[in-house]
Specification:
224 residues, five-stranded mixed β-sheet, alpha/beta, six-stranded mixed β-sheet, 7 helices
Length: 224
């Protein structure tokens, strides 16, 4: 794994596991991919500090999708660090309203009401993105030799970031808890399969999922 990529492994509420955020050294400072849950804010800040990232050099926060375990500290980072927040427009309603089912199949009312409470995504965590990321969006102006890929399935606005070197930050399209595979939680599994198939023709070397360990793309393709 290249030395300029740092994995911030942050706990989820109620010991439900870990979520990965990725801190990348860019030409203009640092770019952070995903932010963890607000319940892990102090741990996130400590890990940022330990990696030399502070309010003077965190230029951009990219959110791979709107789930609270990935966006819970975004509003805080913009307020405290002055960082720009970027995500796909199709998931923006999730963070603006605090409703992770805005563009998904609807659960029962009780589940929908309790999830923000359990995840710590209150009104203080709501925000509107500064930048909307579409498929093919070039991140070079932000110091990162990479582009955005639209990878719906987990949510309609799920995205990935693919660097020139072939590092794919895929959000929750894939996970690697016991072995690499599509995420166990999908809003539209059929669309997720299409997103995965799209990747076959791209120059991908290493995959960095939202949950679990990074994995080698060629080995994964052979097993699949």
């Amino acid at each position: 794994m290249p030395s300029e990529i740092r994995i911030l492994s942050l706990p989820l509420p109620f010991r439900m596991g870990l979520v990965n955020c990725y801190l990348i050294s860019a030409a203009t400072g640092y770019v952070l991919i995903d932010t963890g849950s607000s319940t892990a804010r102090n741990i996130m800040l400590e890990q940022l500090k330990n990696n030399g990232c502070d309010k003077d050099n965190l230029t951009l926060v990219i959110l791979t999708h709107g789930d609270f375990d990935h966006t819970g500290n975004a509003a805080y980072l913009r307020s405290a660090f002055g960082s720009k927040l970027a995500m796909h427009q199709l998931d923006s309603g999730m963070v603006e309203r605090g409703d992770m089912f805005v563009n998904r199949k609807q659960p029962n009312f009780l589940v929908k009401s309790l999830i923000p409470l359990f995840t710590g995504f209150g009104k203080a965590e709501h925000f509107s993105p500064d930048i909307f990321l579409d498929d093919g969006f070039d991140l070079a102006p932000y110091g990162l030799d990479a582009r955005v890929l639209s990878l719906p399935g987990h949510s309609a606005g799920s995205i990935g970031v693919l660097t020139k070197e072939g590092e794919l930050f895929c959000g929750d399209l894939f996970e690697n808890m016991k072995e690499p595979g599509l995420s166990s939680i999908m809003d539209d599994p059929g669309v997720a399969v299409i997103s995965m198939a799209r990747l076959e023709k791209l120059n991908i070397q290493q995959v960095f999922p939202g949950h679990g360990q990074p994995f080698d793309w060629d080995s994964f393709k052979k097993n699949v």
